Amino acid sequence: MTAAPGRRSSTFTRLLRHGFTDASAAERLLDSAELAPLRDDPVLLDALGATADPDLALLGLVRLLEAQPEPGARRELLDTLISSKPLRDRLLGVLGASTALADHLIRHPEDWQALVMYEAHDLHPGVEEFEAGLAEATDAVSLRVAYRRCLLSIAARDVCGTTGVAESAAELADLATATLRAALRIAGAAAPEDVALCRLAVIAMGKCGGHELNYVSDVDVIFVGEAVEGADETKAVRAATRLASHMMRICSETTVEGSIWPVDANLRPEGRNGPLVRTLSSHLAYYQRWAKTWEFQALLKARPVAGDLDLGAEYVAAVQPLVWKAAERENFVPDVQKMRRRVVENIPVAEVDRQLKLGPGGLRDVEFAVQLLQLVHGRADTSLRSGTTLDALKALAAGGYVGRSDAAQLDEAYRFLRSMEHRIQLFRLRRTHLVPEDEAELRRIGRSLGLRTDPVAELLREWKRHATVVRRLHEKLFYRPLLDAVAQLATGEARLSVEAARERMVALGYADPASALRHLEALASGVTRKAAIQRTLLPVLLGWFADSADPDAGLLNFRKVSDALGKTPWYLRLLRDEGAAAQNLARVLSAGRLAPDLLMRAPEAVALLGDGDGGGGLEPRSRAHLEQEILAAVNRADGAAQAVTAARGVRRRELFRTAAADIVGSYGTEEQAAEADPGALVDRVGGAVSDLTAATLAGTLRAVVRDGWGDSLPTRFAIIGMGRFGGHELGYGSDADVLFVHEPRDGVDEREASQAANKVVSEMRRLLQIPSADPPLLIDADLRPEGKSGPLVRTLTSYAAYYRRWALTWESHALLRAEPVAGDEDLSRRFIELIDPLRYPADGLADEAVREIRRLKARMESERLPRGADPKLHAKLGPGGLSDVEWTVQLLQLRHAAAEPGLRTTRTRQALAAARTAGLITDEDAATLDEAWVLATRVRNAVMLVRGRAADTFPTEPRELAAVGRYLGYGPGHAGDMLDAYRRTARRARSVVDELFYGVTER
What is the DSSP string of 513-575? Predict the structure, then answer.
């Protein structure tokens, strides 16, 4: 029928107004013969416009009409569609939300009648009703048809809003229960001899066990088998295994009608490596001896659903006491921390921002938080023992374990996220938790959730809003009730008891819960602005502390900083308003002793942790900038002592800046991942501490000269950095290895000049080591000619005479690291010109010199390694440690630097890279040595950060060792993996050293 002029335009516009996106195609479908009786019916158009996807619903309706077996059936469908609004809404709602269910209706065109009418009892069917719907299924194919017919009714109620997301999830779980029973019945009918031998119970786990299943999800189960009276147990378990396997195949295998869902039994003891079916006693033996914390967490949702329900009830009754004792397990805290990380670590990077379930602020965050609180508090409070997330959340709020407002927000967010998940899966009935990127799919999801003005924008906005709520409340959920318990401000709301608060603190990693609660009380109590802001901050801070190796220290240090700065307005404003400051502070305060000690001596340095530029942030400052600030402070000071005190104060602040940046870079933050290149972290620390040391020496030299001689010293004076100082590789606890060189000014007696130079050195060393709130800077001149027996300061002429006549091979070796750091630039340049021929000999090294270096190295390994130390874990002197790598690189420099200019550097990594470029070492060997050197350097830095004092070996105290592990990127419980990795890295490096340094030809 041809439309009259103008009619097409009117219909086209009307279709667009009703939500059609392809109005032309919709016009053609409405003009089809199948819809001829309804072509001008406005009711149909209104009903289509109310669906999630009107185009999809109209196409599905036409396909369904075409699929009817004969004209009478088509007329019946059309008549019922027009006369029955409930059917119209349900059928079109399903067709507009799910292509998979539309396809089912096309294959089974009579199944639309399942949606015609609901009696009162049909509105909320349970297992019994679903069992009746599946009763006629006799094989896998007919079970799938019956399952989809039942699923139609659930989806119809869901998309029409007759049931909410929680009710739909419960119905899906009940349908799964009925399906498992039907599958087991079919499996039993195929093997009656197996049925006669055993009792088999199917225990639902996960979302099915928790009565909160998705449309498409693995159905997690555990099987328990027992012999019937008089039967052999081994044969009975085999029979039960065959029945269980067949039941799983019936549900999981793909047939002409597709599959239902995978049945997953991997939550059983030993996972997929363990037997599929165990007896009850075997289950209990495993859980009592071998089970991990996550397995008890999984058992929270255990529920008997099929087979021998009495046996299933026995199983649940037997394991429940073990579940509620899980929080008392020795490794509960590190296990919990590992589980939290595992959630995010396994997400592909490209999917993180689209993950509805596992991403930050996703469904798993809510579920994990609720389950953890159940494990902690369900021991004493049986009201918390629900397998359903929302029911458990409600019980936690009622008992005061979670704030009521927080629980309400979390409930709303969880329902929205589950609704999104349901709509995404319903479309094709595929298991996915990814939010689609296609705009048409997003539009359909948005409309299905009632977002009609701008469905895509509104959907994304609501999703992000709810995810943000979950992310914000995820940590707050644990800690807000603790503050309410100690602050006791809110009235009319249930609170945690003192014992419950202590239990929670222990469960979250606090070793001394009583002290921790006292700190919380001091920080959060009262009605001052300070207390109010800290009550807002503490829930998040406590979570970050708990994520560290020493939460107690983090909380104690925060209290100390707060006591020192709490009355200064900028401090609280910084933590409240600066995005990174609070998390950076939490990381720094709980990562070890060094950074908090530096901060406590001058708490105002906390300003460096912010995003703003007032304190320069955590970026290291250049040497020129540091020298300028220190020299300006020296010039303002009254006397050398005051001047050096000012210089040491700058050094303390900058050491804190460097340590804080190192910790934050190693741990990462919520907004920025940890630094992926450990070499970059090492170079940053080495460069920053070396520049700071050089600037401090320059300022101290200026102060001493000005105090004793005014503007000009009677001799030119220079300081040459040696060792790690000269190599720009200083660590937090390193001494400053130096040489002092002077040259009398014209007309000045050499004795007078020498006395002045020695007095300068003596005064510098004294002032830099005076006990004070600032860390001392130790100056070590033992690498000078003749070592400790030689004069502390020499003239340039004396150095030249000594090196010309007496220089030993080890001294040429040591001079490889010589670099001017302070004092007279011209004198420094001439000193370098003097030593270059010594450290870069034109003819390389004679064989005897090489042998001498090797003997010296071997003697150092045997004599200087501390007694009782494990050589394989000694970062400096052990095999594959710093000494091994540095001596190997330096031997290459002594041999080849005269011919290879790239080797003329004081820095180990640069020299190693130059040797690789020059073909003196293979790429693989260079990478092996570089990795070992970087790792050993990081170990030394970590130990200093954690213990507050320098050491070359891993600490033995468990918390300190764990903190070193966290710094190096190892999660809780992985200290052993860290030590193994260090040994492997060092062993590979030593193999290279044996060949390149010692000349061993076989590896």
Answer: HHHHHHHHHHHH-SSSHHHHHHHHHHHHHHHHHHTSS-HHHHHHHHHHHHHHHTT-HHHHHHH
Secondary structure (H, E, C), 695-762: HHHHHHHHHHHHHHHCCCCCEEEEEEECHHHHCCCCCCCCCEEEEEEEEECCCCCHHHHHHHHHHHHH
Q: What is the mean pLDDT of residues 931-936?
A: 98
Dihedral sign (CA 517, 519, 522, 527): negative
Candidates 993, 902, 986; CA nearest to 937 is: 986
CA distance to 339, 406, 472, 483, 514, per residue, from 505 (Å) = 18, 19, 20, 12, 9
The per-residue DSSP string of 353-377 comes to GGBSSSSTTSHHHHHHHHHHHHHHH
Q: How confident is the model at residue 8 (pLDDT cuts 50, 70, 90)?
A: low
DSSP-assigned letters across all residues of 157-216: HHHHTSS-HHHHHHHHHHHHHHHHHHHHHHHHHH-HHHHHHEEEEEEE-HHHHTT---SS
Is residue 302 classed as helix, strand or coil in its secondary structure? Answer: coil
Q: And the tokens for 975?
A: 């200290």
Burial 337-375 (b: 16+ CB within 10 A, else e): bbbbeebeeebeeeeeeebbbbbbbbbbbbbbbbbbbbb
User: d(Cα 525, Cα 509) in Å, to the nearest integer?
Assistant: 23
Which of 945, 217, 278, 255 lies closest to 589 in space, CA to CA? 945
In order, the DSSP letters of 223-245 are EEEEEPTTS-HHHHHHHHHHHHH
Per-residue pLDDT, 6: 44
**255: which strand partners?**
258
- The pTM of this model reads 0.74
Residues 443, 445: Cα–Cα separation, whole Å: 5
CB contact set of 358 (below 8 Å; sequence gap of 6+): 343, 344, 346, 347, 364, 433
Token pair for 643: 């001047």
955 within 8 A of 943, measured Cβ to Cβ: yes
Residue whose entry in the numeric block shows the structure tokens 């105002």: 604
* Res. 3: pLDDT tops 70: no
pLDDT of residue 494: 65
Kindly list the distances between the CA atom of residue 909 and the CA atoms of 882, 900, 926, 927, 989, in Å, as whole numbers in the listed order.
Answer: 12, 16, 9, 10, 14
Nearest to 729 by CA among 794, 677, 683, 768: 683
Considering only the C-alpha atoms of the chain, give the largest distance between any 2 of them, rounded to a whole number of Å: 126
Q: Which two tokens stand for residue 98?
A: 């799910």
* Six token digits for residue 315: 């199983």
Backbone torsions φ then ψ of 506, nearest 5 degrees: -65, -45
Per the DSSP assignment, residues forming a β-bridge with 740 are 719, 793
Torsional sign, CA 510, 514, 520, 522: negative
Of 1-15, 19-33, 121-135, 952-966, give the lowest mean pLDDT range: 1-15
Question: Considering only CA atoms, which of 300, 493, 499 is closest in space to residue 399?
Answer: 493
AA identity, residue 815: L
**Are 208 and 219 contacting, i.e. CB atoms less than 8 angstroms apart?**
yes
Q: Are 605 and 589 in contact (CB under 8 A)?
A: no
**CA–CA separation, 723 vs 603, rounded Å?**
33
pLDDT single digits (tens) 362-419: 998 899 889 988 988 888 889 999 999 999 999 999 988 888 888 999 999 999 999 9
Among 8-17, 171-180, 288-297, 329-338, the range scoring the smallest mean pLDDT is 329-338
Question: 747 is written with which tokens?
Answer: 């007309």
Question: 79 Cβ partners below 8 Å, 6+ apart?
Answer: none
Q: What is the pLDDT of residue 4?
A: 46
Would you give the end-to-end CA distance of the chain in angstroms?
Answer: 89
Mean of per-residue pLDDT scores for the chain: 91
